[in-house]
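Today's session is about reading a structure prediction critically. Students often jump straight to the picture, but the first step is always the sequence itself: look for stretches that repeat, for charged clusters, for runs of hydrophobic residues. Only then move on to the predicted structure, which in these notes is written as discrete structure tokens rather than atom positions. Here is the chain we will use throughout the hour.
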Amino acid sequence: MGVSLLSSPAFPRIFIFSFITSYLIPELALAGITRHYKFDIKLQNVTRLCHTKSIVTVNGQFPGPRIVSREGDHLLIKVVNHVQNNISIHWHGIRQLQTGWADGPAYVTQCPIQTSQSYVYNFTIVGQRGTLFWHAHISWLRATVYGPLIILPKRGVPYPFAKPYEEVPIIFGEWWNVDPEAVISQALQTGGGPNVSDAYTINGLPGPLYNCSVKDTFKLKVKPRKTYLLRLINAALNDELFFSIANHSLTVVEADAVYVKPFETNTPLIAPGQTTNVVLKTKPHYPNATFLMTARPYVTGLGTFDNSTVAGILEYESPLHSAASIRNLPLFKPSLPPLNDTSFATNFTNKLRSLASAQFPANVPQKVDRHFFFTIGLGTSPCQQNQTCQGPNGTMFAASINNVSFVQSTTALLQAHFFGQSNGVYTPDFPTTPIFPFNYMNNPPNNTMVSNGTKLVVLPFNTSVELVMQDTSILGAESHPLHLHGFNFFVVGQGFGNFDPNKDPSKFNLVDPNERNTVGVPSGGWVAIRFQADNPGVWFMHCHLEIHTSWGLKMAWVVLDGKLPNQKLLPPPADLPKC
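Below is the predicted structure for this chain, in token form.
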């Protein structure tokens, strides 16, 4: 049996229109075709945890529709906004070579799509295959506006592992009984931390460990002696997640749509914004049991968090058992690491290595043109006059990179750059190192106030970059999943304590480091990445914990055009939204 990417009830089919034939199913498509999707942004009543509410969705689906394509395909995705909220969609992990206008973050590469307006995201998938996802990229709308983005290899190109019997997307999310837009609005108004979610979800379903949710449980039905490729996606807003299936081990084969050297684990760790493909080998005989698959957070910060557990069920199909008899089988539960198990998290991430083969090389920049050192962490902003704030010592929570808390422009940065109108929009003077160095892991400064600005880094085309990101203990050490738009990067090193520029670089892995688009800056430590700035445009970089992004833990890189036609940003499309 082939892949079943279009048959899961958790992700209803949506039609794809092609220049080759109408209503073309992706599995039957030729390589390098144009695929047309339509996303209608609309309100839909959805019930979870016995709470019914109206949520923003794509095509009335929660989670949203699955996009399936092949490497080399051209995608045209028309987004029509039927709700009162402004909207933009980010195709998380797609390089967007020369097509930065389609990247999606609001006020960075585009103005948002306003009510009753539309925009066609137009891009080609170049040199990428694997599991990614798409999500809203404005405010906290991605709480409900998200879905899988599956890129199959070019036709005739096999996986670098045995072909699975079936492929199943498993996308983790968070559910609030209230409106998430009200949650972040209140947090920004009071200066305090946000109210945490009421549940985690697997493919939109909270599962039997939550109140009133036995009927809302994701079930993965499998057969003995088969292999299944599970495409794991963390679309949760604010939590890294451990995941495990009782009495089954998993083989990791891909991270962030890049193949890795396979290794076995019982429990992958996936940060928000990350994807991980794992191979599940089922038992050789019908086991006369069912098995919980569960996920719960890995937490390092001092703030409140949702410490609940989401569960689905792995169920073996048997012609000898009815649905009623299956419910009476023993149910095994997996064991997950402690919530704050940084040692486990570190051991897992250290196992991730690129294939570094002739077919899938690891093109790590061996020489570095520009070195950057960024501190990543929380801080505070002063409370506004005549207001009582709920942050530390009566202040407001903030977050920053090199103590610069990013101020969102009201003009799209890419437009300002492309038309040479950056004056008054942004300045090209983002600090390459901390303005006030200190002992980042001990004795934080008494002054925790951040500075504010819309500051960017400008890079000539094809600059090779090494960036060290250092966690700080200001308001407590914490893991931060940093996502870079427009590029993959290589994770060449990481460690705990303060980065030592004299000793630590000698330990960098420049042979087969993990290549990805989102990396966790370790709690109480640092991570070093390298990338080639070979994609002209303006590229957002931010913490994928949504509350930290809201507090200002973000910045952007400007990559200038190269000399050749294929090194230049294409002109903006005619339907680019206006602010």
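Discussion point for the tutorial: The longest strand covers residues 34-48.
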